[in-house]
Design brief:
By secondary structure, this protein is α+β, with helices and mostly antiparallel strands. About 30% of the residues lie in helices and about 20% in strands. The structure holds flavin-adenine dinucleotide and iron/sulfur cluster.
Length: about 325
């Protein structure tokens, strides 16, 4: 496979959202939206995917920056991960998201990679990225879910032909913060809860999110509901930097007088979508925030898990991350 040069495509660089919306409508599935390019360029350079037109969104000023709103924050989809990590507004109110952004990849990638691209990125399964004709690529088999398949990084929950996982570090934090995603196309705007933005293979095996070819994610809104809550983010990967999560955990909780009054806790790297751990939430709500509750919570996190041949280690990993989130947040 040639990795020297990208295949030919036509490049468009609209300077406003309406120009970009015209282009995505005109090209549909033949157009490829690019923000920081950190996921997209791999596909094109590896020639695993091709496109007729690249629509570069990075000149659209209205999709950049972090604004305070009446009931929270709005983050333009083109805001870089570094800007999120360093934003005083985000650090003050939603340190969970700043922490998650700071654990993505490397400083160089965070300097150009955007929050919109981070949540819209494609699966990192080796076979799929290598250009193999698996289910997710429109074929009729899964190479990872076989006795010899390389499935160490794959899912514990929600398998349906495909066993790939959600690779984003910011996604679990956004679901924990009850964020919503602002999506526009030629017909107008719709707002989707972050929890419903990510979709599994049972909904559509060729997409990771609700975004269609003619949709542009313009912004992410975070309500004040969880501002200044007690937060916990931890990511475990094979390397400390420049590596995807084996499992990550994001939790937002309200603690009063030593009791966990409310909580949202979400894991990445265990399912095709960020997995909201509702069982854990129910176990700990109303309980003392202590080591006993944390242990119970950890034990409940893996309920229903179906490990593959080489990812059984993810069960104790998930349980321990949940235990630490409750105990150490
Ligand atoms: C070496 C390496 C290590 C990495 N490590 C991590 C990691 O540890 N954690 C992690 O979470 N990620 C990681 N990534 C993945 C990813 O590249 C980055 O997270 C980055 O944030 C992607 O953002 P981008 O703007 O560069 O995306 P792009 O490549 O520009 O876009 C990614 C996808 O999203 C779509 N898209 C982008 N913006 C929009 C929009 N506004 N509306 C609709 N669709 C859009 C594109 O069409 C494309 O399909 C890594 C990538 C590399 C190359
Ligand atoms: S896990 Fe999904 S992406 Fe990977 S080979 Fe199987 S079908 Fe393809």
């Amino acid at each position: 496979m040639s990795k020297d040069m990208m295949p030919m495509f036509e490049l468009f660089q609209p300077t406003d959202l309406s120009g970009a919306l015209d282009l995505v409508e005109r090209y549909g599935a033949d157009g490829w939206k690019v923000a920081g390019g950190q996921d997209s360029l791999d596909w094109l350079k590896d020639r695993a995917k091709r496109t007729k037109a690249v629509i570069d969104l990075t000149r659209i000023a209205e999709m950049k920056g972090i604004r305070e709103t009446a009931d929270g924050l709005e983050i333009g989809a083109l805001t870089t991960l570094t800007e999120i990590e360093e934003s005083s507004l985000i650090r003050e109110k939603f340190a969970l998201l700043a922490g998650a952004a700071s654990r993505v990849a490397s400083p160089q990638i965070r300097n150009v990679g955007t929050i919109g691209g981070n949540v819209s990125q494609d699966a990192r399964c080796w076979y799929y990225r290598g250009g193999m004709d698996c289910y997710r690529a429109g074929g009729s088999t899964c190479y990872a879910d076989t006795p010899q398949g390389m499935n160490r990084e794959h899912c514990l929950f929600g398998a349906d032909r495909c066993v790939a996982v959600s690779p984003s570090d910011t996604a679990p934090a956004l679901v924990a913060l009850d964020a919503s995603m602002v999506i526009q196309n030629a017909d107008g705007e719709r707002v989707v809860a972050a929890e419903d933005f990510f979709i599994g293979p049972q909904v559509d095996i060729e997409r990771m999110t609700v975004l269609q070819a003619d949709d542009i994610l313009t912004a992410i809104r975070i309500p004040n509901t969880w501002a200044n809550a007690t937060f916990y983010f931890e990511k475990v990967a094979d390397r400390k930097t420049w590596d995807f999560a084996l499992v990550n955990i994001a939790a937002a909780m309200r603690v009063s007088g030593g009791t966990i009054e409310d909580i949202r806790i979400v894991a990445g790297g265990v399912e095709c979508v960020p997995r909201r751990l509702s069982v854990v939430e129910n176990v700990v709500k109303g309980s003392a925030k202590n080591a006993d509750t944390a242990k119970l919570a950890g034990g409940s996190a893996s309920r229903g898990a179906i490990p593959l041949n080489y990812n059984q280690f993810k069960i104790p990993l998930l349980e321990n991350l949940v235990m630490r989130a409750i105990r150490d947040a």
